[in-house]
Amino acid sequence: MATINDVAKAAGVSPATVSRVFNGGRVTPERAERVRRSADELGFSPNRVARSLRMQRASVIGLLIPDIANPFFTALARGVEDAAQRTNLSVVLCNSDEDVAKERRYLDIALAEQMAGVIVAASSRSQTDLGRLLERGMPVVAVDRRPRAAEVDAVMVDNQHGAEEATHHLVDRGYRRIACITGPAGASTSEDRLAGYRTAMRDAGVDPEWVNAHVRHADFRVEGGRAAMADLLALPDPPEAVFVANNLMTVGALQSLREAGVEPPGFGILSFGDVPWASLVNPSLTTVQLPAYDLGVAAASLLQERIAGSDKPLQTVVLRTALHPRESTAGPRPD
Fold first, then answer.
1. Of 39, 56, 73, which residue is a domain's last?
2. Average pLDDT of the chain?
3. Would you say residue 316 lies in a domain?
4. Helix (H) or strand (E) holding 130
């Protein structure tokens, strides 16, 4: 029995275009004719019941994020919802907990419920699989994290540039032995922020072996940051500053510093990701502000275009970060 992929291949279009032809989306007359001709030749007949359900549920989109407890993803979700509401789309929020298996179950639900489209912040660059959604012609937008194998629209932060700028800031303030606590290996945000840190350390002339020995991967959560910071402080050659690759891990790192009796700014700490209380603590915390809300708005806008039938080339929107220097990176303690 012919599938939507067979028709797409025969007609020289994407599965999404075939789906739009049979679900009333906007497609050029020439492409629609090619699709219908190929469908007839292959004996392909769209499921009318499924199509009816699809039209009933065409006002619902899915948003799949790794950690709803993280204020970054909360702000991102608000951006998605605000933008979606302007075109009468409703948002179903799914929390994957950085778990690829849980993420896969939610993607299966999006298919089963015939959602109009999905926005995904992938749990893993290599393991997140969007193939089934794309084969069925469902519009998908990647936000914040891009799965390596997926050809989809994407809205990203310039993580590498932001991390490089942040690490250069620490160097410029006089720190040299700068460690890095980044996220799980395999997450695109972890890899990009680590790459930016490494570039800045190389520019500063720091021994690559020292850098390698002072990088820790954690879980993007408070406890992961606490354990990683404690491990770094226990090294024979401990750092004098740390670049922490997300806001929740920064909270954990600050806990470890307090437990060890180590205080900023003599020990420098910089958070990649803002927190509401950054300017209120003593000393105030230097942060890199991420455009979380704007990411959500841009992702929803891209998805809306695809749902409406846009057949233009895939887009990648990249938003910049903003460094906010404060007292926690004022300079190292005197020797």
1. 56
2. 89
3. no
4. none
Sheet holding 60-65, edge to edge: 90-95, 60-65, 117-120, 140-143, 153-157, 316-319
Judge whether 14 lies within some domain.
yes
| Residue closest to 167 by CA, chosen among 195, 207, 208, 209 | 195
Over residues 271-313, the pLDDT tens digits come to 999 888 888 889 999 999 999 999 999 999 999 999 888 888 8
Q: State if pTM tops 0.85.
A: no
Nearest 5 degrees, angle CA 244-CA 249-CA 254? 85
**Number of compact structural domains in the chain:** 2
Residue 306 is assigned to a structural domain of this protein? no
pLDDT in tens, 147-188: 876 789 999 999 999 999 999 999 999 999 999 999 998 788
93 bridge partner residues? 63
Residue 43 region by backbone torsions, left for phi larger than 0, else alpha for psi between -120 and 50, else beta: left
Residue 35's domain spans which residues? 1-56
The per-residue pLDDT for 88 is: 87
> Of 238, 237, 264, 261, nearest to 250 (Cα)?
264
